[in-house]
Amino acid sequence: MRWAVIVFPGSNCDEDAALAIDRVLGDPVDLVWHDRSDLSAYDAIILPGGFSYGDYLRSGAIARFAPAIAGVRAAVQRGALVLGICNGFQVLTEAGLLPGALLVNDHLQFRCELAELRVENAETPFTLDYAPGARIRIPIAHRDGRYHADAATLSQLQRERRAVLRYVQNPNGSAQDIAAVLGANGRILGLMPHPERAVAEWMRSTDGARMFTSMHRYVEQQGASLAASAEGVGRLG
Amino acid sequence: MTKWRATVRVWLKPSVFDPQGHAVLQALASLGHDGVEQVRIGKSIELTVAADNRDEAEAKVRRACEELLCNPVMETYAVHVEEGAQ
Amino acid sequence: MAEVRVQTKAAAGTSGQPTPQEIREQRRYLELGLTEAEYERVCERLGRLPNYVEAGLFGVLWSEHCSYKSSKIHLRKFPTSGPQVLQGPGENAGVVDVGGGLAVAFKMESHNHPSAVEPYQGAATGVGGILRDVFTMGARPIAFLDSLRFGPLTDDRTRYLFANVVAGIGGYGNCVGIPTVGGETVFDESYRHNPLVNAMCVGVLEADKMAKGAARGVGNPVFVVGARTGRDGIHGATFASAEDPTEKERSAVQVGDPFLGKLLMEACLELIATGAVVGIQDMGAAGLTSSSAEMAARAGGGLELDLDRVPVREEGMTPYEMMLSESQERMLVVMEKGREELAFSILCKWGLEVAEIGRVTGDGRLRLRFAGEVVADVPVAALVDEAPVYDRPADAKYVQPGLTVAKPEPAAGDADAWAQYLLTLLAHPSIADKRWVYRQYDTSVRTATQVGPGSDAAVVRLPGAERAVALATDGNGRYVYLNPRRGGAIAVAEAARNLVASGAKPLAITDCLNFGNPEKPAVMRQFIDAVEGMAEACRALDTPVVSGNVSFYNESQGQDIFPTPVVGALGVIEDLAHVTESAFCTADSAIVLVGPIDSALDGSLFWQLLAGQPAGDAPPLDLALERRVQDLVQSLIRTGRVRSAHDVSDGGLAVALTEMAIAGGVGAEVTLPVTPRDALERAGLLFSEAQSRILLEVDGASAEVIVQEAAQAGVPALVLGKTGGDAVIIGGDDGVWLTLPLASARAAYEGALPQAMRAPSARGEADA
Q1: What is the pLDDT of residues C28-60, one digit of tens each?
Q2: Could you give the CA distance from residue C425 to residue C606 in angstroms, rounded to a whole number?
Q3: Quick one: CA torsion of A161, A163, A168, A171, rounded to 10 degrees?
Q4: Chain B residue numbers touching A62 (CB-CB < 8 A)
Q5: Please, what is the end-to-end C-alpha distance for chain C in angstroms?
């Protein structure tokens, strides 16, 4: 499978994400400048962390108008996976691709630490390789990470098990301890923690690696199942 | 076309917790400012807009608010337009 | 010299400015930062009276901040060369060979005065400035460290300054995506009115691809890249050299734009990689003036600038204002003629503004044109190389203030009382856990931080190499105040020791020399002695000084700060298996003290807390022993027998041991082979800050062998006890002196800063 990492002016975790893909999977990965709208070559697209356009006005508010976001919409229609990490999550909510919004942390400070998370749904393309209910540790590093959504949206997320990760200890005042949100179609995930910073023992956690292996396994299975159904042999379970 | 001076105020919806306003409220209390009951902090954005009339100017600014300046998930806004460049 | 055609009458953009005659007669040069003697020297050198713009150029370039006129003759005492040094002082940053074809550029710089006036922006622009100094060397920045000094946290304004300096450092560093991996924060009365904010940046480059800040090649075009020029920060450089910053005009506040800083960094690195850049420099202090004059001086040539072409943010800016503006996020770039298009396309991709504003000349003059006239025409050498050098008067001998302080004796209490002393030290904000600070910094972006803040040194992996750099900052103003020479040496020794304890070989240092008013002979004596002490330690430890900065006039209301030289040290770890941290790894390890048992409380924080002021001499230091200790620990770590290591510093042995225990979540029980005569000696054994000491955690079987190896190397060493349990227990031959449960230690150590910052604040933390 082939990965794209979108680079906006002000992105700063783009290379980290690409490096993590390479370290964990060895899959081909391209850094794609934000002015490109044709993302048809990619099975998975990462919107990386950072401060796109300085996070001026609101985090992610300006990046969502980039041609690459049009490309992301098209890719999702096609069945590709989209992972928005930190600033990428903010861009996805601003773009309306994920519900809710990310506000300044309730304590008003930037917070960087290894966060403990609970895997609430291990049946998504992004969490296949985690045990259901597992507690994992992935770093956070953000100032605008307080997840907010209205009551109806929150109960819908709850009902549809789309709050995929929750903080064990809420670091920012997020509603219902939500750390990651899955899109309605199940192929977009936004999360504040940085899985690309937890892929080696010396990083103090390898728990982020399974997010990338999950996505890889999902895409490969999809490919196999598509190929299989094309031959009329039936679908993989 | 006339130049119009528009001021957009953007603030968090009443249902959204405003930690900055909360901190300022506490600071005011500790400084002895009695009777301040609520503080909400928002942004003020000033634009100079070219338009034929006030309605057109305001419509242009509202479109900017809807598309970019305000995020309706958490924010609300008000527009004030007056004649004259800044 | 050709006939002077420099305008002397009021012309475009100069109305309202005094004429050359008025500058002389009304002594207007004083407000431009020139003394009478300096002004006379300018006139003599020019062979005529300078106009307002010219006098302004001399004023800023001959300021203390730009010219180092009070410190220059003393800085020459630093060793600055060695086989590892690729670039010593004089460039935008020093560059050191770290092996494997890689080099590291690094520098530290002070932003004390701007931070005292506007802490958030002062700190943020300090970080932005040092970032640009590093990437202009062609180095990809990989880490920041910050060395901070504030007054006591019980003070309202101090909490405001502290909170906002930390937020400002994070605000800039986090946005540009460079991890802040270390530093120190010290709180002392001495810094109440004059906080210190020293920022260090470290970058990596291929050893043979260094860029330089020289304007070479007659005819090559000169560009301004980045932000537009506004009136901000005019006279920031002279402002940095004046007392009581808060009384100075506050318009000197500069505002940082980290987003633009990030774009500038990416664009400049891309530009430098094309090979079409001849010279590049940040427009930092004194803006266009210093960048153009310094770049021309390094090349031994001249520059001609057309100021009409400088992109400005405000209307009606005069040449004087354009030359002295300190608007942030601007670079001066000299390109190879004919390859300008390359620059335009790269800068355009990053959305940056660029303007060609002049060209390199061969006549050695800085010539400025504006509105059809030459508004300044002065020899570059006069501006830069011939800046005045002062051998300022210094007291013949430093009067060591701590020697006359009555040496406080602790009460001979029970074990609980001793545990209480230890708790008090652990909860002192200078020693206490700094998580409150560094969790506001992105410490792990770039995914190369193997050891972040909180250990002896930070360890950052180098891209594409199985090696890492170790980074530490150190500087104890209390020691330098008590004994400038020894204190200066300790700053270097301790910084290097922190690297060694992390598994590295020290290579070189950068420094920020923060002192009071150099016009006071006592301060000058502190400065000279401290520099000599540092130089001595640099020679002893083979760590040359490759870059640095001097900050004088750190005083307020006539009170000078503790003389505070801060050292930023760089070391290399050639095998990642040797990375060592200060947290105990496991129970049942042996604890070995490398270095002497000492009970001298001179200079200790313990004594300062008891006496209410620093007492005694600086702690003992023997540089020859220091070198042996560092060499020994380096070689022990390389044999793989060291599980963790920690330098003994503030708070002495007891604090060092407890810090290792808290960090590892493993207790310790140690017994010193001594029976103290009295409470004073017992306190000394626990809390002495005697130098050249490192605690090691090793496996039990190796401990005695290590002690023997140390003896062969001429280093005292001792097995003190072992790790385990859930308390720190320390005693001597006469029994147990204190027992401190790990939970209590942790609560004091980790709770101190958050508690201090939760104190009600009249200013509110909303602006943090």
Answers
A1: 999 888 999 999 999 999 999 999 999 999 999
A2: 7
A3: -170
A4: 68
A5: 56
Predicted confidence (pLDDT) per residue in C264-310, tens digit: 999 999 999 999 999 999 987 788 999 999 999 999 999 999 999 99
B 44-83 residues with CB below 8 A of C? none
Among B19, B71, B73, select the one facing A107 at the smallest CB separation: B19
Structural domain range at position C720? 402-432+580-756
Same domain, residue pair C412 and C285: no
User: C298 and C419: one domain?
Assistant: no
What is the rounded CA–CA span in Å between residue A130 and residue C119? 45
Active site residue C428: no
Q: Where are the domains of chain B?
A: 2-83
- CATH code for the domain in which residue C242 is found: 3.90.650.10
**Does the pLDDT of residue C3 top 70, yes or no?**
no
Residue with tokens 């001998």, as numbered in its chain: C397
- Among C706, C662, C482, C675, which residue's Cα sits nearest to residue C597? C675
Q: Could you tell me the CATH superfamily of domain A3-230?
A: Class I glutamine amidotransferase (GATase) domain (3.40.50.880)
Please indicate, yes or no, whether residues C345 and C421 belong to a single structural domain of this protein: no
Mean pLDDT, chain C, rounded, equals 92
Q: Choosing from A34, A86, A120, A216, which is the catalytic residue?
A: A86
CA dist., res. C530 & res. C523, Å (int): 10
A94, A120, A196, A216: the active-site residue: A196
- pLDDT attached to residue A176: 98
Residues C329 and C417 in one domain: no
User: For chain A, how long is the longest CA-to-CA vector?
Assistant: 57
Contact C195/C311 with Cβ under 8 angstroms? no
Task: Return the residue in A21, A86, A112 with the most chain C beta carbons within 10 A, the one to mutate for interface testing.
Answer: A112
Q: What is the DSSP string of C173-190?
A: HHHHT--EEEEEEEE-GG
| ipTM value for the complex | 0.95
Torsion sign over Cα C283, C286, C289, C294: negative
Quick check: A112 and C258 CB within 8 A?
no
Nearest chain A Cα distance for residue B70, angstroms? 9
Q: State the amino acid at position B58 in one-letter form.
A: E
- The structural domains of chain A, with segments of one domain joined by +, span 3-230
Cα dist. C558→C186, C524, C730 in Å?
22, 15, 44
For A71, the token pair is 């490309």
**DSSP-derived secondary structure letter, A64:** G
Give Cα C224 to chain centroid, integer Å. 28
Active-site residue flag, C578: no
Chain C residue with the nearest C-alpha to that of B20: C766
Burial group, residue C5, by CB count within 10 angstroms (0-12, 13-18, 19+) = exposed
Query: How far is A184 from A193, CA to CA, in rounded Å?
Result: 20
Q: Which CATH class, in words, describes the domain spanning B2-83?
A: alpha beta
- Structurally, chain C folds into a number of domains equal to 2
C454 touches chain A (CB under 8 A): no
Nearest beta carbon to residue C447 from set A10, A54, A197: A197
Look up residue B56 and give its two tokens.
Answer: 């057109």
C543 inside domain: no
Cβ of C764 within 8 Å of Cβ of B41? The answer is no
Under 8 Å CB pairs connecting chains A and B tally to 34
